[in-house]
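Ligand-bound model needed. zinc ion.
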Amino acid sequence: MRYGIFSDVHGSLEALQAVMKAYKKEAIDKYLCAGDIVGYGADPIECIKLVRESEPVIVAGNHDWAAAGKMGLEYFNPYAKEAVKWTQKQLGREELKYLKDLKLLRQEQNLTLVHGTLYEPGDFHYVYDIYSAGRTIELCSAQICIIGHSHIPFIITSKGPELKFIDKLQTKIDSDIKYIINAGSVGQPRDNDPRACFCVYDTESQIFQIKRIEYDIKKAQAKILKAGLPEILATRLAEGR
Ligand code: ZN
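Prediction:
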């Protein structure tokens, strides 16, 4: 089985199209999405449509639930808040229902999927270091926990109490080790690499790869500005932060 695993599309159609095109060459059997289809970018409807067409195992992100009116906006910074409000106005009843019905946790073979953390998943905490990763790995009954939310891809391994970052973005999954893997962000990477991020996991070879692909950033930026969204949401795309 070959899994295509991605997260944090954030309404960027150009980035999502580039990733889906790259996935065509990967012979993917099944897709997994760790949340935040919408928010920040100018194409929430088209992104929901394209994600749904891939029939993914998918969980809710904070932007998905906020856009659907399922959580308050006090969690968000001013730019994100503006983006959520703008997104809400674009979506129709059908899209809002789809986002509202997304669950916080999903299971698929040896994978658990959550946007933030396994403790209080509805509070959307961040995993940003080995300490914050520890609690989630402890709670994970599956071998691999896939997360998103910070837009920074990483692989953390856990052998007993010892947790550490792998310095490469590719690894062979070892059956004696547990993993927490951040799938990065399709539409708004924040690891200083502006290219769209996506993952491929082959259960036969057990190779897990975090990959990057160029996309038309200028086009995505122009649409954000034309939509009247905050300028910073456009400029940050070129910097990947
Ligand atoms: Zn996000």
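The longest strand covers residues 196-202.
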